[in-house]
Structure formats: structure tokens, C-alpha cells
Design brief:
Chain B: InterPro entries: FtsW/RodA. Chain B: It is a multi-pass membrane protein. Chain B: Its main location: membrane. Chain B: This is Rod shape-determining protein RodA. The complex is a heterodimer. By secondary structure, chain A is of the alpha+beta class. Chain A is built from 21 helices and 22 strands. Chain A has 2 domains: about 40-230, Penicillin-binding protein 2a (Domain 2); about 230-610, Beta-lactamase. The longest helix of chain A is centred in the N-terminal third of the chain and has 23 residues, at about 5-25. In chain A, strand 21 and strand 22 form a beta hairpin. Chain B is mostly helical. Classes of the chains: A alpha+beta, B mainly alpha.
């Protein structure tokens, strides 16, 4: 017994130790603990974000250096606080507060003292910095905007939020990421790939050299530049024209689906969301709930399209064979639905296709609409046919552009009305407003522009997009180079386009012709209502205009939508004609018209419903 | 192979195991103390360079020991013992304080730690006393003498303060047990430890209730023929209860907070998980870091010189007391299990050698050596892997430190020398 005591003890200890070690090293071990190993720090090397150019190679977005004043609290020696605060342009209390926070975070690690100094402040500080131990200046890269326009298309970058951090392993806290517009859509291209260095640390959090001699480290990969389809000059010009007006404009190159301009009014200078004033500016823009500058009306507003929609009803009528260009309808300064007369401003008389479009005759299109439905045995079948044609123009659903936001608009279908009126309790006459683009139809300016492009192309369109090429390869998503054919045969477009051309020559837009450019267009005047404090009131009509030019070989198709701009030819028509001239000719010949459009604002219209007083609508003040 | 000289008779298996342990130890010291500036392994400004120097000195010591007459150690053991006691006492006057403990003499190039010398001297002195023809360990008087020999140096070491080294002297009880010291003393000792720990964990009331319940069960289920007197059992219970009460008193009033914290940590006395985690990361920082380092090694380890926590110096005192955590991180379970196995084989071999001695003195000294080594090994690794509370003792042959390595080597090789002489002893 006594001879075996020590041996037993030795063996017992051995087993105990092996047991404990198995628990620690085999059971508790997890292979991915390198991630939370306190001894390894990852340092990221950020590549420069890719530049953004317009379709002509003009720079729109680049990068600019910004300078953060950093502090390592432990290394700070006593200093003349007042002088230093003066130099940095901050309050002493602020300074002490920041110091305290930095010390709490870590006395050994750098914290930001003053973020994003301008170049001028940096120049002032630079030479004096060495007097202040523990402080240094760190360079960062910020976005630089070579234009004050297109904020809605370009989007902005900002720090990743917590949700993204949790769900996307590509980002760590504090990193910047595109959050709207092109910056968001092409984030991965623009961002490039950050490099990473693994640093071995000691228990005081000091760096003591590369981990595994840098075997796991990677080099940063430069972000690619992209070219977008916008025409910087056209975009800037459009935004100037939109001054003081609410609404949206979209211009598309029909033969490619490239978006030439995409304007939302009111808008803001993209540079406002960069730098030290960013959060202040952002709140200001975000909380302006009346003019909503951050709400992109060009793709999110969904008004009824109004009369431009008549062109599609005409096309459907022709395709369905229920009318010929010569088919005539009589206008009684309106048309009857049952015994009720619905008004028309065309002047009355007998209308065929050409004059119907030219004078925007409501009675003519109500007639066409009824005929389409009459062709079918039941209203449901008529509805299905009509809906299919409409949707083939990219209406009533998301278009699939390469912008992260969008709205579907609305083409009502039979289910919609069955729900509204009850099954079998509605007919073409019930929904006759759809014939003139009012009623339940809704479309975004982008959809209207796209529809116009489809007409300009005589029957097909490309999905509108803003990407022209990426990096040097030039390759973009093939879905933007595939034509989408409408359900209307090519031959039916000519008579409709002729009517649209006559709108300019003799019709509702004859006052705004452009010398030497033949345009096809269609005006729209859209009744609209809002609710304020539960009371429904009618406001001045929205002014809508769609056009493409030149009629043969179209280079531009556009839709202009001006909230409360009164009749179509007024604001929308003028602005459209100026944009067409600017794009095709590169200069404006009608300077008096231009001057009027640049100067006139609709602020008085927008103030009306909020004034609390009774007001008149559709006043002919010019 | 070496003929009839000392090299022919010495136990080469032990020497090979010893060499392996020293080598593995040095490899890990090299890893823990390597910095980017380091150049040669012979650079004596570095810890691994110094340790290499100490290994060299140990070699000289080995040669010295092997060429000294065998009975020199037995004959002069009393003198060694007295000298070491004087050296320990002298620390109160001339000692050099490092890290709060006055445990060293400054010899200029080298800090001498007499408590290490004391282990050798005590082992020799105890063996000498017990092997004396007139000593009878079964008598109370001689038991008392033996205890004095063991505890005298421990009492001199305790106030340095170096409770860890003092505790080591209790290892010599294994020698006593081997030589016929009644085993029930061990039973009593274990019973006291159990009482102490269970009082801390459950409180006096539950300890008493527990003892009463056990006594009742024994009386209920015992064979009718077995007579157990009731009175002594009652006496044990009462004395134990009193002891349990005194444990509370000592724990609260004599122990310092840092001692209490160690027990809190070890026995998990804090019930609040968050607070316990907090204590683990502050007071238990060393153990926490060392456990984490070992854990992060996994089965295969991170590889030589690849231990991130070792390099980052996250485990304090890693080259000395916590050297084993470096094995764990860089060599993984394979490495730690190998080291445990090596130590176990080494100890069993030494026990085998001790048992084959013809001379009582040699056997008893051998047992002293083994007990000391096993105790160090048990307390050190137990602490590093989080089984025992923090007690600062080095891992023999592994930990950085001149005194430690040299005296452990002397301790061992004196025994090997005695062993090489065993055939002559009979004559």
C-alpha cells in the first residue's frame, strides 16, 4: 500500500490533467476564434471609391481629401486649451467633453477629435499641429461633386447601419456605403475591395508586428469608375428650369433606353450631404414634409397621366381593329355617359384619329374606349385585352431600372374593379375615365417617358437605365440591351405619331414649336385632389407633357410632370420644348421663353392649400 | 557502454527524460520571450539566452555531483541543512526583494533563491534522520522530530512572503508515509481539507447536518455484528463543527481579500454569473488568460512561434509559472498530453529507481526528490489549467529561472548518483 501510494498519486494526477486538457482543448475549442482573438487586430486599407462620369465623359462625382483631427489621450501633454480650441474652431466645453469621451473609449487608441476639416482649416492647422503632443491629423476620402445636380440619381454614401453590420460581413462599423441612387446600386463596383492587414498585438494593445509575417494580408483593389447615361448639361439645365416648381422630368434616348436626365423638383445640392454639416443638412431636407426634396418625384410620384394616355388607347383601338384612322366620333362639347354629359375642351365637332389627338378630344377617346370593350363578349374579356396591351408598354408594374427605388404605377385590372364595384356590376362606361388617362390609372414620370420612347421606336423599348459602362470593360447587365416589344404592330404607330406631330404643328402645343426640329408630343391636364384635415379639395391641375424628337430618327423622348402647373402646354410643354432644344441643338434660341421658365415659380400655388383661406384654382395668371 | 565508471551505472532513461523536459521547456521559453529584435539564441540579454546559460551551469553542476563521493551527501547532509536554514534566516537582513517577496540573494550576475537550496538540504536531512538506525518513525517523539525538520524551513519561507514555496515542503510527508508514518494522518489531513472546502461552499450548518446524516446512515445500515462506539463519533462531529466555525472566522478575519478572491474563483463561490465573470477577468486574469491561451490551441496547436496570445504577452509570467500555457497554445492537445505523459513516465521511473535502492538513505532521499517534483508539477499545471487556485510555484525543468533549474537538477542528479552507487551500498 505505502509503496504504491506515490505511483497512484502520479497516475491519478496525470489522468486528471489529461481530462481537464481535453475539456479545454478539444471540447471548448472552436476553430473560428481567430476572429475574436484579442491578440490580432485587423487594419483595413481602403481603396479610393470609383469616380462617376456622365455619358460624355464629364466628371460628376470624384473624391476629395478631408482631414480628421485625431487624439491619443495618453500622449497628450498639458496645453493651452483656449488657443487650441480657437485653432480648431470649437468651444472649450466641447473640447473637454470630447477628450473625456476619447479617454473613456481608450487612452491608448486614437479617437476623432474634430471630424472632416476643410482644406483651408487644414492648411491653417498643419504647421501648428506639432506643438500639440497627442494630436495628429488623419486624412480621409470624401465624395466630391463636380455638379450641383442629380442628387436623386447619384445618391449618397453614409456610414453602414447596425442592420447592415449584422447581415453583411463585408462591412465593419464606421465604414461608408452607398445608401441611395447609383452609389447604392453600383456599390460593389465603386467600392472596390479593401485590403486587410493582420497585426499581432500585446496585452497593452500595442502593435508588435505583422501576424504570420503578413501571410493572410491582402492588398486593396481600386474601385472601378463608372459612366452613367445622364447628360450632365441637360440634367443641370432641367434642374434650373424646375426651380420653384414641384414635379418630375425623365428624358430617355429611345434607341437605347438610356436615361438622359432625371429631374425631381425641388431637389438639393448633393454636396450638402458631405462633410461636417451632413447630419444637420440631412435633417433639414428629410423633415421638409411639404416640398419633400429627398422624395424623387421622377420615379416615385404616381399621378394620373392624363391625356398622353390617349395615344395608347388609340393604338389599342387600331390594334384591336375596332377603329381605323378615319373612324369618326362626334363631340358634343363632351360625351354622354348614360344621360350625363362629360365635358371636353376640344371645341366640338366631328373628330377622327388625327384631330382627336391634335385637339385632345375626350369624346373621341371615350368612343374608342367603348369600342375596344364592345368587341368582346364580356367586359372581363375586354378588360383583359386592354390590360395586356397597356402593360406591354411597361405600365402598371416596376420597370426594373437600375435605381434602387421606384414605384409601380397602376393599370387597374378586372379584379381591381370587382373588388371596388362588385363582380359584374361595372362596364366600360363605369370606367370611362381611363380612356383619357384619369380615373384609376397612375404612372410615374419615368413610365410616361418610357411609354413615349416605345411610341418613338414604333413598338418597342429598352428597360430604362442609368448605367452606361463599368470600368474599362464597358459591360453592363444584358437585360438593358434587350428590346421589349409592345403588343401593338409597327404599322399602327404612324397615324398616332402623325397626330402627335400635329399637336405641335396645329394643336394644343402649337405655341411652343422649336424652329428646325420636328416634334411629336401630347399635352396632359390632370385634375387632382388632396385631403387637408379630412377635407377633400381640388387643386390646380397638374401640367403633363410627353414628347419625342425628331419625329424621324428620335433622339430624345421625355415626360414632364409639373404639380399644379395648370394645363399641359403651359409649364410642362414649355419646359419640354426647352429641354428638347437644349439636347438636340445644344443651345437655346428662344431666350425670352427660357427666361420666363427660369424665373417663374409655382410657390404661390403650393402655398394655397396651406394658407387656411379659400382659394381659386386654375387661374389664368401668366 | 561506459564501462564500470559512473556513466556506465547511471540510469540513462531518467537522463533522457530529463533532457527532453529541459529541451521542451527551453523551446517554449524561446517562444514566449522571442521579440522582433532578437538575433542569436546565445544572446544573453534575452531570457532564452540566459536560460541556455543556466542549462550550461546545470551541466557543470551535474558533472560536479557525479564526481563527488557518494557518501559525501549523506555525511554532510546535516551541515547542508543548517547552512540552508542560516541562508533562509539571513534573507530577513540581506535579502533582495523582487515582486514583493524577499526571497533572493543578489550575487551580482545571478539571484540566488535559498528556498530552492533548502529543498535539497531538507530532502537530504530528512533522509539522513529517518535512515538513522536509532530512529523509529512509529514513536511520537521521532514523528515530531521529522515534522520539525520539514516545517522549520517552511516557517522561514512563509513570511518572505512565499506561501507557494512553503507549501511545497508538505511534499515531504510522502517520504514519511513511505517510511511507516501512520496513513490515517493522511486521512485526517484529507478530512480537514474536505471540511474546509465544504464549509466555504455550503456553510457550517449544512456541513454539520451532512455529518449527522452520514453517521445516521452508517448506524442504520451497518451489520449488526459491527460495533461502533457512539461517543467518539459524537465527539468527531462536535469537533468538526467547531472547526467548521473556526474556518469561517479564519476565512473572514485572517485571510486577506486577495486570498478570498482566489477561493471565490476556484470554488465558484460567487453565485452571480456576471460578477463571477468579472472576477475571472480581473482577479483571475492570469488564469483566465492562460486557460484561453491553452483552449485556443485546439488539438494540433497553432504551431511553433505562432501562438498569438503567447506573442502578445497576454498571459502574465508566461516564461516562468505559466510556461505550460505556451505549450497548450502552440502545440495543442498533442503537446500538452505529451508533456503530461513525459512527466508521468519520468516520475514512475524515479519511483521504480527509489524502490530498488538497498540503502535506506538513498531510497528516502529519492522519495524526497520525487515528492518535491510531483508537488511542483501538480500545483503548477493544476493552476495553469484552472483546476487549482493561483499558487506561484515553477514547473520543474520547464520554467525560466536559474535557481530553480540548477537546484532541481542537483536534486535529481544527487539521487542518480546515489542510485549509480547502489550495488556498492550493500557491501
Amino acid at each position: 500500500m505505502k509503496k504504491l501510494l506515490l505511483s497512484s498519486v502520479v497516475i491519478l494526477i496525470g489522468f486528471t490533467f489529461i481530462g481537464r486538457l481535453s475539456y479545454l482543448q478539444l471540447f471548448r475549442f472552436s476553430p473560428d476564434q481567430i476572429l475574436d482573438d484579442p491578440a490580432i487586430k485587423k487594419i483595413y486599407d481602403y481603396p479610393e471609391r470609383g469616380y462617376i462620369y456622365d455619358r460624355n465623359g464629364e466628371l460628376m462625382v470624384g473624391n476629395q481629401p478631408a482631414y480628421d483631427v485625431m487624439v491619443i489621450p495618453r500622449e497628450v501633454t498639458p496645453l493651452d486649451t483656449l488657443e487650441f480650441c480657437d485653432l480648431l474652431g470649437i468651444e472649450k466645453a466641447d473640447f473637454l467633453d470630447k477628450m473625456e469621451k476619447a479617454r473613456t473609449y481608450s487612452p491608448r487608441l486614437p479617437s476623432v477629435m474634430v471630424p472632416q476639416l476643410s482644406k483651408e482649416d487644414y492648411a491653417k492647422l498643419q504647421e501648428k499641429m506639432r506643438h500639440y503632443a497627442g494630436f495628429y491629423i488623419q486624412k480621409r476620402s470624401l465624395r466630391y461633386y463636380a455638379t450641383n445636380s442629380a442628387a436623386n440619381v447619384l445618391g449618397y454614401i453614409s456610414e453602414v447601419n447596425e442592420w447592415e453590420l449584422k447581415n453583411n460581413p463585408n462591412y465593419v462599423a464606421g465604414e461608408l456605403k452607398g445608401h441611395t441612387g447609383v452609389e447604392k446600386q453600383y456599390e460593389e463596383v465603386l467600392r472596390g475591395r479593401k485590403g486587410v492587414k493582420h497585426i499581432q498585438k500585446d496585452r497593452f494593445n500595442r502593435d508588435i508586428g505583422p501576424y504570420k509575417s503578413g501571410k493572410l494580408d491582402t492588398l486593396p483593389e481600386q474601385g472601378k469608375e463608372i459612366h452613367i447615361t445622364l447628360d450632365k448639361k441637360l440634367q443641370e439645365y432641367g434642374e434650373r428650369l424646375m426651380h420653384g416648381k414641384h414635379g418630375g422630368i425623365v428624358a430617355i434616348e429611345p434607341k437605347s433606353g438610356e436615361i438622359l436626365a432625371m429631374i425631381s423638383g425641388p431637389t438639393y445640392d448633393p454636396a450638402l450631404l458631405v462633410g461636417r454639416q451632413r447630419s444637420k443638412n440631412y435633417s433639414k431636407l428629410h423633415f421638409d414634409t411639404i416640398s419633400k426634396p429627398t422624395w424623387d418625384r421622377s420615379i416615385l410620384a404616381q399621378p394620373s397621366p392624363g391625356s398622353p394616355f390617349k395615344t395608347l388607347n388609340a393604338l389599342i383601338g387600331l390594334q384591336e381593329g375596332v377603329i381605323q384612322p378615319e373612324t369618326k366620333f362626334r363631340c358634343y362639347h363632351g360625351f354622354y355617359v348614360g344621360n350625363t354629359l362629360r365635358g371636353c375642351h376640344c371645341g366640338g365637332g366631328v373628330r377622327d384619329l388625327n384631330s382627336g389627338i391634335q385637339q385632345s378630344c375626350n369624346a373621341y377617346f371615350a368612343g374608342v374606349f367603348r369600342k375596344i370593350y364592345d368587341k368582346y363578349r364580356t367586359t372581363d374579356e375586354g378588360m383583359d385585352a386592354w390590360e395586356k396591351h397597356m402593360k406591354s408598354f411597361g405600365l402598371g408594374n416596376y420597370l426594373g431600372t437600375d435605381l434602387p427605388t421606384g414605384a409601380p404605377g397602376r393599370i387597374p385590372d378586372k379584379a381591381y374593379y370587382d373588388k371596388w364595384y362588385g363582380d359584374g356590376r361595372w362596364a366600360a362606361s363605369t370606367i370611362i375615365s381611363n380612356s383619357i388617362g384619369q380615373g384609376e390609372i397612375a404612372a410615374t414620370p419615368l413610365q410616361l417617358a418610357n411609354m413615349t420612347a416605345a411610341i418613338a421606336n414604333r413598338g418597342y423599348f429598352y428597360t430604362p437605365h442609368v448605367i452606361k459602362n463599368i470600368g474599362n470593360s464597358g459591360a453592363i447587365d444584358p437585360k438593358y440591351t434587350e428590346p421589349h416589344y409592345t403588343t401593338i404592330d409597327r404599322k399602327y404607330f404612324d397615324p398616332v405619331i402623325e397626330g402627335m406631330a400635329n399637336v405641335y404643328k396645329y394643336g394644343t402645343a402649337r405655341w411652343i414649336q422649336i424652329p428646325d426640329i420636328e416634334i411629336a408630343g401630347k399635352t396632359g391636364t390632370v385634375e387632382n385632389f388632396i385631403r387637408i384635415d379630412g377635407e377633400r379639395m381640388q387643386l390646380t391641375d397638374h401640367s403633363v407633357f410627353v414628347a419625342f424628337a425628331p419625329v424621324e430618327n428620335p433622339q430624345i423622348a421625355l415626360a414632364v410632370y409639373i404639380e399644379n402647373g395648370y394645363y399641359g402646354a403651359r409649364y410642362a410643354g414649355h419646359i419640354a420644348s426647352l429641354l428638347i432644344e437644349k439636347y438636340i441643338k445644344g443651345e437655346i434660341t428662344r431666350t425670352d421663353l427660357e427666361k420666363r421658365m427660369l424665373e417663374k415659380t409655382l410657390e404661390h400655388e403650393y402655398a394655397k392649400p396651406y394658407s387656411g383661406e379659400p382659394f381659386k384654382i386654375n387661374e389664368y395668371v401668366w | 557502454m561506459f564501462g564500470r565508471g559512473v556513466f556506465g551505472r547511471i540510469d540513462w532513461i531518467t537522463i533522457i527524460l530529463y533532457a527532453l523536459l529541459v529541451f521542451i521547456g527551453w523551446i517554449n521559453i524561446y517562444s514566449t520571450s522571442l521579440t522582433d529584435q532578437s538575433t542569436s539564441i546565445f544572446d544573453f540579454s534575452t531570457l532564452y539566452g540566459k536560460q541556455l546559460f543556466f542549462i550550461g551551469v546545470s551541466l557543470l553542476g551535474i558533472i560536479l555531483v557525479l564526481f563527488v563521493e557518494s557518501n559525501f551527501f549523506e555525511r554532510f547532509s546535516s551541515i547542508f541543512y543548517v547552512v540552508s536554514l542560516l541562508l533562509l534566516a539571513g534573507l530577513f537582513v540581506f535579502g533582495k526583494t523582487i515582486a514583493g517577496a524577499t526571497s533572493w540573494y543578489n550575487l551580482g550576475f545571478f539571484n540566488l533563491q535559498p528556498s530552492e537550496l533548502g529543498k535539497v538540504a531538507t530532502a537530504l536531512a530528512l533522509a539522513k534522520f529517518l535512515s538513522d538506525i536509532q530512529t523509529d518513525i512509529r514513536t511520537r517523539k521521532h514523528q515530531m522530530y521529522a515534522l520539525i525538520i520539514i516545517l522549520l524551513p517552511a516557517f522561514l519561507i512563509l513570511p518572505q512572503p512565499d506561501p507557494g514555496s512553503a507549501l511545497i515542503y508538505f511534499a515531504f510527508f510522502f517520504v514519511l508515509f513511505r517510511e511507516g508514518f501512520p496513513l490515517y494522518y493522511l486521512g485526517i489531513l484529507l478530512f480537514i481539507v474536505a471540511l474546509f472546502v465544504s464549509t466555504l461552499m455550503f456553510g457550517t450548518v449544512w456541513v454539520t447536518i451532512g455529518m449527522v446524516v452520514i453517521a445516521l446512515l452508517v448506524f442504520t445500515f451497518k451489520k449488526a455484528s459491527l460495533k461502533i462506539p457512539l461517543l467518539p463519533v459524537l465527539g468527531v462531529i462536535i469537533i468538526s463543527t467547531l472547526f467548521s466555525l473556526s474556518v469561517n472566522f479564519v476565512y473572514e478575519n485572517v485571510f486577506e481579500q486577495r486570498h478570498r478572491d482566489r477561493f471565490t474563483l476556484w470554488l465558484g463561490l460567487e453565485k452571480d454569473e456576471k460578477k463571477l465573470e468579472e472576477i475571472r477577468k480581473t482577479i483571475g486574469y492570469n488564469t483566465y488568460q492562460s486557460e484561453k491561451a491553452i483552449e485556443s490551441g485546439g488539438f494540433f496547436g497553432k504551431g511553433f512561434l505562432e501562438g498569438t496570445r503567447t506573442k502578445g504577452d497576454f498571459v502574465p509570467e508566461q516564461h516562468t509559472d505559466y510556461i505550460f500555457s505556451s505549450v497548450g497554445e502552440e502545440w495543442g492537445f498533442l503537446g500538452t498530453a505529451t508533456v503530461i505523459l513525459l512527466f508521468s513516465v519520468f516520475f514512475l521511473r524515479l519511483i521504480y529507481i527509489a524502490e530498488r535502492q538497498k540503502s535506506d538513505f538513498s531510497r528516502m532521499y529519492g522519495y524526497g526528490v520525487i515528492s518535491i517534483l510531483v508537488f511542483h508539477y501538480f500545483i503548477n499545471i493544476g493552476m495553469v489549467i484552472g483546476l487549482l487556485p493561483t499558487i506561484g510555484v515553477p514547473l520543474p525543468f520547464f520554467s525560466y529561472g536559474g535557481s530553480g533549474l540548477i537546484f532541481f537538477t542537483m536534486l535529481l542528479f544527487i539521487f542518480l548518483k546515489l542510485d549509480s552507487n547502489r550495488l556498492k551500498d550493500g557491501i
